[in-house]
Amino acid sequence: MSMSFNLNVIEEFRANGGRVGGPFEGGDLLLLTTSGARSGRPHTVPLGCVRSEGLLLVVASAAGAPEHPQWYRNLLAHPVVRVELGTETFDAIAVPAEGAHRKRLFDAVVRAAPGYGDYQAHTSRELPVVVLERPEAPAGRPREVRSLADKLLEAHTWLRAQLRHVRSEARSHAPGRPAGLGLQLRQHCLAFCDGLTHHHAGEDSAIFPALARDHPELAGVLERLGEQHRAIGRIKEELVALLAGIEIAEPERLRTELDRMSAELEAHLDHEEAELLPALAAIPFPPVRPTPNGR
């Protein structure tokens, strides 16, 4: 599909609560926004979707073209994607299915939308079936976000939960396990790394400078936290390097690096919460913007 055609569909989708006409009329459609594999810039495409086994699926068919579509290559590099479904918008982790799981899901897709079977027949590549996983809500009652302290704890809760999940998957990634576990683990681990990068970048560029300005007594604390960011960042780069290929070539080394990340990150998060939460609790979130007359 041409870029102009996609743009028209995207505009119609957003203007009509997910309903569109033309070739997509009456079909199940969503908008998928990925981050460019190299540029990091957002790219949005309209895609047909299928629900099966309680999962939301999209297929990287490219109408049976010989190569994978760019949006699929993007999500292999950056698994966290934005999904627009009807009037709902949410973030998801994109995980291509593999092996018997992929075959079962593809068979379900073809039963729901036989055209995908025709696309598969016209290409020698196996059409990827991608599961769009909504992150699980943290256990316990959700915290109401009223201050920057609450927002920090929300981010820390996600990081801790995602890292625990990845480490659990890594421990089960042993010789003889199904091949699909490798790609699932890879996507979840990359999603954690992307989330960690985003969180620390936000702290380094905005939160820490603001605290340094308003709370000079925290200068030493902020310097130590910045040093911890850099140390954790080096471990993160080791993880990303291990996940460079589609298959995880060194699972034992990956487990070792995940254990090291867990020890360093947990100590850092505990330290950050103990030192910064009192000051951050006084800062409302979302920020209160001054009115034009200054009131």
Structural overview:
The protein has 295 residues and is α+β, with helices and mostly antiparallel strands. It folds into 2 domains: 3-133, Electron Transport, Fmn-binding Protein, Chain A (Pnp Oxidase, Chain A, Roll), CATH 2.30.110.10; 148-280, Four Helix Bundle (Hemerythrin (Met), subunit A) (Up-down Bundle). The protein has helices at residues 3-15, 70-77, 99-112, 115-121, 148-172, 180-214, 219-242, 251-280; strands at 29-35, 42-48, 50-52, 55-59, 80-85, 88-96, 129-133. The protein has a 7-stranded antiparallel β-sheet, sandwiched between helices. α5 (148-172) packs antiparallel against α6 (180-214) and α6 packs antiparallel against α7 (219-242). The longest helix is centred in the last third of the chain and has 35 residues, at 180-214. The protein is globular. InterPro entries: F420H2_quin_Rdtase, Hemerythrin-like, Split_barrel_FMN-bd. Residues 149-280 form the Hemerythrin-like domain. It catalyses: oxidized coenzyme F420-(gamma-L-Glu)(n) + a quinol + H(+) = reduced coenzyme F420-(gamma-L-Glu)(n) + a quinone.
